[in-house]
Protein: Tubulin binding cofactor E
Organism: Cavenderia fasciculata
Amino acid sequence: MTSTLTTTQESQSQSQSESELQSETTTTFQIGDRIISSDDDHYGTIRYMGDVDGFAGMWYGIEWDDPTRGKHKGTIKQRTYFGCTGGGSGSFMKIEKLVGGTNLIHALLRKFGHKIDNYDDLYVLSNLDNKVPIELIGMEKIRERQQHLNGLVSINACDLKISTFNPTPAILNTLTCLEELNLSHNLLSNWKDIPDLLKQIPTLDKLILSENRMEVTDEFIDYISTNTATLQFNNIKTLVLNKTNIKWDRVVSLCKYMFRELQVLRLADNHIDSTKLKETEGTEQSEQQEESLEINSLFPSLSVLDLCFNTISSFNSIRNIGYLSKLEELNVSNNLIENIVFPKTMDDGSTTKIKGFGKLSTLYLSHNKITTVESIDELDLLPSLVDLSLRENPILYTFKSTVESNQSTKKVDMITQSRLNIIPRITSLLAFNLTKITDLERKDSEIYFLSEFFKPDIPINLQSPKIKHLVQIYGEPSYTK
């Protein structure tokens, strides 16, 4: 005989389990902890704990991630309690308004199912005082999900208020097959906790920590630099640190001592303006040789680098990444790049080649400030480039329009004109602005380009290299502008 628990009873049981899990949430804080405001769900970091002149009780000084959320810079009535990196992003809160974090396992249990220690203890008494097992509606499904938690290959743990990681062997025994872990937008506060996590997930291949404001202290760098034998996690091939406010020099240190075998590194929206490692002295050639050796020693396996939504203004400021021997994909969209110039070398005194970017096949340059065709011509020197995105750059709006009509038609014409003018300039290109270039489109655009820019009154040997190349294919045009 089996009794079926009613919806109300099931709800009460789940509510009790939820309450038990909630008790694992942090209720005491220290400086540096990450919190959420119970008023509006804004995220912030505790920068001060103590008294505030003129106000009774204990106060917590918060630096908010959103600079518009705060009221000051940590100073009230000429007394400075803490500092803010982002303008007036500070305010004071009472502890009742602060929501703390929980540990990883409890957060996962809350997401994937409620924990009940002994399912066999769930029963009711019959009229004869006999124990009758309860069949909870949906409970078997929850139990199966718990049992299979350790069989999951990928877990999305975003927005679960995770602030700490369970000590060994809790995670080790629970996530036995995990290859990808997404911890974006949680309450993680310090990189010193990450090694303990990674030691418990030796199968992990991809780690996503985006939108966590995690401090990388000098002490932590010293620690990992002197313990590389136990803190190198060569199993991590993909590391995503978007919108974490991490500095480039800290990225370099983390990869140097912890992540030697990274293949994919994503650093979007971190205010990075340069990838230079240090200021070097000597000739330009010696500097480039030093840059090449050093950058390859730091990222020997890196093939994909994402630097979009940063503050890079020129390729010269990221010149050293061009020496990465395995780099195939570079994303520098949504930066401040105005022109493109590569360091060059001459081959046999006639053929121009650039130094670096030898294997770069995919380049994302959309939403920058490129204005000149010389920058586009420079891209033709990339020997392996096949896929280019250049949307929303001023250069695309400089090509002449042959249609005077409504805005929609002008937009279509702008796209057409940009393809006609850019595709011929980059010989190796197979896709432009996320659209494949067909053989027919390439032929039509090259013939159009030749008719536009061939100068019949100038000897062929004095024409531009691109025109000379196209004449070899199609011959001199019969009609020119």
